[in-house]
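[job 4471] stage=fold_predict status=RUNNING
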Amino acid sequence: MVTSTMSVAGRVQRLVGGVALIVPAMLGFGAPWTWIGIVPLTAGIVGWCPFTVLRAQLARKGDVGAK
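[job 4471] inference complete, writing structure tokens
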């Protein structure tokens, strides 16, 4: 089983953002790029985001400012 890499708030933000991008595309008045909402939607559902893992690894090396 994959361990979650994001908080509950992060998951909710990704779910809301993904839906906000996908709905206009599904209704036919969104630009074609709005289908990219599938990425944050999937990350929010699964609870694992590869970009979060990458950021954490880079922060350990000192390459990215970590909070």
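[job 4471] summary: The chain has three helices and no strands.
[job 4471] exit 0
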